[in-house]
Amino acid sequence: MKQYIRELKIGNVELNNNLMLAPMAGITDMPFRIVCRQMGSCGLMFTEMVSAKGLHYQDQKSFELTGITALERPIGIQLFGSDPQIISSMIDKLNQTKADLFDINMGCPMPKITKNGEGSALMLNPKLAYNVMSAAVKTAAKPVTVKIRKGWDEQNINAVDFAKMMEDAGAAMITVHGRTREQMYGGKADWEIIRKVKEAVHIPVIGNGDVVCAQSARDLFDVTNCDGLMIGRGAQGNPWIFSEIEAGLNSGQLTDSVSVDRCWSKPEIQEKKAIMCKHLTLAVDIKGERTGILEMRKQLAWYVKGLYQATSVKNCIFQQTTKEGLLECIQNISESRA
Question: By Cβ atoms counted within 10 A, which residue in 10, 220, 245, 289 is the most buried?
């Protein structure tokens, strides 16, 4: 039987397995990361992306995003920026943190990022991207990785050549999201581009895009022969996805490929409710009740996706302003299936 889940080494960082949680702004905060770690089977996770320029100008919120606990390790801090000198100086400061590695975001498609020449806009400026990565690697006391996309649009697909440049600049790992910037998060991810990048470089290549269960994970591995998987939206409200994928791939009992719409992991309702309560408690303990409640309402809305009377449950969630109110909404979720 083909071994899909295996240990992976990134520079001098050794991972127990090759399943990773993608950095997602406003989603993969400390409470969510801790829940994912406690659910098991997540080999590596990342902070929300942090503005190097924000750190440079002493922005408190940016510094808060770099906060890490021992519970989350191994973990990487993801930075975005287009100024090599600022990237270098901020990594120099972050060398003292608990981060196991640093990741440079060259894939974010959001206009507020790309309009400044950052994120996926760097794929339109390979020379600057090379300088950013090179500066980061020279300063870092830890491995530096990079996350890219297929390209800017269908007329500018350059992931393979771009990945080679990142390897030459010293990147220890490359994650490829199989969509262009123009696609944002819509349409279907192109796994063939991930395969081509894997064939072109000698460092670990991580596939990203449309993995929502064990079946789709196996399909991506088979198509790309990549070294690991990074899971983003598939983990929203679904922190047990890593365990589900590991168990499914290790079982060797998966059937032929199925539509991703049929892959959603559905644990027992009581288990889901218990994790929701744990996540909520962590958020309030770490961020305080006001901020914790405001941020958890969207997280809980993802958890109830697909449950019986999900719309009513969501309405209840978004009306609450206290921890007790949210806990009551959770406990009142019916065990019936949609």
Answer: 245
